[in-house]
Write a structure and sequence with these properties.
Carbamate kinase; single chain; 8 helices; globular; two-stranded antiparallel ribbon; 8-stranded mixed β-sheet; alpha/beta
Length: 256
Amino acid sequence: MTTSRSTQATEHKTVIKLGGSLLERLTSDFFRGIHQMIESGKRVIIVHGGGPAINRKLKEAQVETSVVNGLRVTHAEAIDIVQTTLIGSVNPWIVHQLEQAGIQAIGLNGFDGGLMKASFLDQKTYGYVGKIDDVNPALLHLLKETVPVISCIGRTDDGQALNINADTAAEKIAAAVQADELLFVTDTTGIKVNGETVTTTHPNQINDWITDGTIYGGMIPKVQAAAGCLEADIPVVRIVDEMLEGTTILKEVAVR
């Protein structure tokens, strides 16, 4: 049976960001976990990237790209491939997995209902990479009994597609719908200190851990991005694994 649930103004809204190599390794257990969230009364919105799939398509087309400051440089010959891969391949796959788990879902992108209006971030440096100027949540408010699955493609005022960083898109969408929590699904079980997962923390403690080297390497940008989302008035940000377990980051809380 497909899950659908009537919602009220006081509904609990959860935005989930999917991306990276983990996206293609998600199992049926993950999607059953989403089903359980919905059954518990939460409204779920999913925002996704699709780096590995895009890399394969670019390689097949013999189009080379690079990464600058954590962003994929997207030249004119690459933007069509990025757009068609995210909207035509990755998005339908996620929608299908949700529906296989009994969840009613619909695929969306920045063109739908003016969802994500964008402009060039820095065309000389990054090419067709965008920054989000406005999120119009009207369409999302209409889809109260369906899980929106949003590809990170924005559009300019004149209809040009732009590649949007998935972390940024998730943050902006979460803020626009006044989400109660934002989940970054990663290949790690949250933040680990001395080999143990920290269940709850706050930005000041995270900064201390970065300074003393407790948090290092690729985890630094993840935790900084997650903590930064709290400034967008999102009450709770979580870094979790595919079982939706990990670390909860609050604006200020005593660390246990």
